[in-house]
């Protein structure tokens, strides 16, 4: 791979003249490796700072989702006796499934995008085997480019529906765009089931893509998990608070209250809210996972760059010293030859 | 006896302070809420929320959601909310025009549903600026 004894190192660039001073080229390489190291380290720090912000975004989303969940649970409880169905709870026989896939906009995050697209491809295969059609809504540039590949596009079972691109932090507006698309797909009966594929943030080094069913809405105990970045023994650690909503007692006591409209109408108004908040949470967690993946990948890259720099330095010094020794020998030999003549 | 209004969207708290009176847009019309209102739960339509502080009325465009009034605490959960003063008139007009054009272009049930929602939202935003307190 790398032989320090040969002074002629011309890797894969035939345009350069073949005779090159080994020392100079080594020096150039060492410089580029140092620059690369600085860049990867900066990227790691930026990603670390942004994970913190992403975590704060999730925390600030909590008041909304906890209020919503409490009231939703209450209303659903009351309506459980009556067999209520709203457009978003209607369960039909499933013929087509919509899959919302959340990927990153940029690369350099290790295996993050690959694992998401692989899971998506697997799910599409599964659905194909069950004889169900699949509509894909792709979020994020990397996913968009994956799904525009011919291999997926030409597949008759899969219809790639829309591409959404989110710049920067996911806010309610972007989640609304996706929720709208999903809502209209479902209500117009183009699809009968909607699933969300996002990356769940388990810890700073573990994140896994999961598939969560979004529609039709099934009323179960919703798991409102939130993660917190903190320090444990001086190292960054992540704690996940799993809040089971029924037990949450922050004064969200719901007295018997009148409904201004029909409970069905109220449920109908709340389910889009729930959909929106679920989509937003998927986006936020995916962002946090992407940042953590980038942090890890850049940390590894930095370590590699440091090691490579060391190896190159050693080789460079050897070359340099060999050259100096050679010159000295020449000089001494020349001097010897001259003095001998006298 | 003052009302405390809390407007929450999925990613932030838009409003959390005391008000004198509010007018909520719901599916079944507008509801005025004064202190000591009876506890009630209502579905909020895409429309304008009017808030009265002392003698001044503020407007906020709400994009559909849910409201709970209980014990002088009003909690409004909406998909998105924008204060009238935060909306750029030019941009809102342009968005409205684009939404109208999209609705005319829309074919098929699904596109019509999406276009309709977008139009209603754009219209609400424009109305929120135009209302003079």
Automatic annotation (TrEMBL), chain A:
Function per UniProt: Produces ATP from ADP in the presence of a proton gradient across the membrane. The gamma chain is believed to be important in regulating ATPase activity and the flow of protons through the CF(0) complex.
GO terms, biological process: proton motive force-driven ATP synthesis; proton transmembrane transport
Gene Ontology MF term list: enzyme regulator activity
Any matching Pfam family: ATP-synt
NCBIfam families: ATPsyn_F1gamma
Compartments reported by the entry: Plastid, Chloroplast thylakoid membrane
Family membership noted in the UniProt record: Belongs to the ATPase gamma chain family.
Any Gene Ontology CC annotation: proton-transporting ATP synthase complex
Record's protein name: ATP synthase gamma chain
Organismal lineage: Eukaryota, Viridiplantae, Streptophyta, Embryophyta, Tracheophyta
Native species: Flemingia macrophylla
Membrane topology: Peripheral membrane protein
Keywords: ATP synthesis, CF(1), Hydrogen ion transport, Ion transport, Membrane, Transport
InterPro entries given in the database record: ATP_synth_F1_ATPase_gsu, ATP_synth_F1_gsu, ATP_synth_F1_gsu_CS
TrEMBL record, chain B:
Subcellular location, record wording: Membrane; Plastid, Chloroplast thylakoid membrane
Membrane topology of the entry: Peripheral membrane protein
CDD domains: F1-ATPase_delta
UniProt xrefs under Pfam families: ATP-synt_DE (PF00401), ATP-synt_DE_N (PF02823)
Gene Ontology MF terms in the entry: ATP binding; proton-transporting ATP synthase activity, rotational mechanism
GO cellular component: chloroplast thylakoid membrane; proton-transporting ATP synthase complex
Record keywords: ATP synthesis, CF(1), Chloroplast, Hydrogen ion transport, Ion transport, Membrane, Plastid, Thylakoid, Transport
Domain ATP synthase F1 complex delta/epsilon subunit N-terminal: 3-81
Coiled coil: none
Top-level taxon of origin: Eukaryota
Keyword Ion transport: yes
Chain ranges of the ATP synthase epsilon subunit C-terminal domain: 86-129
Membrane spanning stretches: none
Family of the protein in this entry: Belongs to the ATPase epsilon chain family.
Subunit structure: F-type ATPases have 2 components, CF(1) - the catalytic core - and CF(0) - the membrane proton channel. CF(1) has five subunits: alpha(3), beta(3), gamma(1), delta(1), epsilon(1). CF(0) has three main subunits: a, b and c.
Record NCBIfam families: ATP_synt_epsi (TIGR01216)
Function: Produces ATP from ADP in the presence of a proton gradient across the membrane.
Protein name (database record): ATP synthase epsilon chain, chloroplastic
UniProt gene name: atpE
């Amino acid at each position: 791979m790398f032989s320090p004894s040969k002074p002629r190192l011309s890797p894969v660039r035939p345009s350069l003249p073949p005779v090159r001073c080994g020392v100079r080229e080594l020096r150039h390489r060492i410089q580029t490796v140092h620059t690369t190291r600085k860049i990867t380290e900066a990227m790691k720090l930026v990603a670390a700072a942004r994970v913190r912000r992403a975590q704060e975004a999730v925390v600030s989303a909590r008041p909304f989702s906890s209020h919503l969940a409490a009231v939703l649970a209450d209303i659903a409880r009351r309506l459980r006796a009556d067999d209520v169905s709203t457009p978003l709870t209607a369960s039909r026989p499933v013929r087509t499934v919509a899959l919302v896939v959340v990927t990153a906009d940029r690369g350099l995050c290790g295996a993050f995008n690959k694992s998401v697209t692989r899971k998506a491809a697997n799910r599409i295969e599964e659905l194909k085997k069950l004889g169900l059609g699949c509509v894909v809504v792709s979020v994020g540039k990397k996913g968009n480019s994956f799904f525009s590949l011919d291999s997926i596009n030409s597949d008759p079972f899969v219809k790639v529906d829309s591409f959404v691109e989110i710049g920067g932090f996911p806010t309610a507006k972007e989640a609304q765009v996706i929720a709208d698309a999903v809502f209209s797909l479902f209500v117009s009966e183009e699809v009968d089931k909607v699933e969300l594929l996002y990356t769940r943030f388990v810890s700073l080094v573990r994140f896994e893509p999961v598939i969560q069913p979004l529609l039709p809405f099934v009323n179960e105990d919703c798991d409102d998990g939130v993660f917190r970045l903190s320090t444990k023994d001086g190292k960054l650690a992540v704690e996940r608070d799993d809040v089971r909503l029924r037990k949450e007692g922050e004064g969200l006591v719901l007295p018997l209250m009148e409904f201004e409209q029909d409970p069905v109408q109220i449920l109908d108004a709340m389910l889009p809210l729930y959909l929106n908040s679920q989509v937003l949470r998927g986006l936020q967690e995916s962002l946090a996972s992407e940042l953590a993946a980038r942090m890890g990948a850049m940390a590894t890259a930095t370590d590699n760059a440091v090691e490579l720099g060391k190896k190159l330095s050693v080789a460079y010094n050897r070359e340099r010293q060999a050259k100096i020794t050679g010159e000295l020998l020449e000089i001494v030999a020349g001097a010897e030859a001259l003095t001998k003549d006298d | 006896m003052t009302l405390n209004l809390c407007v929450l969207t999925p990613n932030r708290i838009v409003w959390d302070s005391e008000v004198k009176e509010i007018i909520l847009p719901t599916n079944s019309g507008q509801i005025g809420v004064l202190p000591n209102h009876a506890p009630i739960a209502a579905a909020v339509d895409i429309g304008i929320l009017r808030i009265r502080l002392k003698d001044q009325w503020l407007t906020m465009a709400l994009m559909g959601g849910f409201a709970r009034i209980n014990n002088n605490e009003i909690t409004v959960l909406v998909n998105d909310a924008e204060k009238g003063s935060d909306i750029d008139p030019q941009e809102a007009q342009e968005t409205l025009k684009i939404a109208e054009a999209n609705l005319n272009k829309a074919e098929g049930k699904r596109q019509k549903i999406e276009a309709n929602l977008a139009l209603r939202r754009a219209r609400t935003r424009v109305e929120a600026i135009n209302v003079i307190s």
